Fold this sequence. Notes:
The chain is an alpha+beta fold. Helices cover 40% and strands 22% of the residues.
Amino acid sequence: MKDKSIQPIDHEKVMREDDFIVSKTDPKGRITYGNRIFFEFAGYTEEEILGVQHNVIRHPDMPRCVFNLLWVRINAGEEIFAYVKNMSRDGSYYWVYANVTASLDINGNIVGFYSVRRKPSAAAMEIIPSVYAALLAEEQKHPAKDQIAAGTAALEAKLNELGVSYDQLVYQLQG
């Protein structure tokens, strides 16, 4: 469960070039594994975070529509690459370039999810924060029940303006 007492602060933790953050969850999104770098950036110990919903590190600056896109794709058994702003236990933040995919059993059933994150490119960090801020602002103009749809419409409009799909944008920015 997300600790509502943790407030965001304006301090960024920047991933190192050779860092890979790895985590695994069960089908409900509860953390079942994290590597050393995951614990370092999240600011939790293994004992504190295993079994906890992965959204414990969700930063409030993240638009809901981006997470909706991610969950739709991975629940369909597809992988997705996405930029995500996470929040550490101390309130600081860190950006990641995430690859998220479903873990399947021998019969093709989803048994969990697996994510590997690395440092986002400088080109992405020049664009994605302002795009996400605009999406979040659009979501916040609407009641909670309509926020994902409003953000999704704004995201689709931005992608149409750029003439790319979400995947193409992400791949182009990461290089």
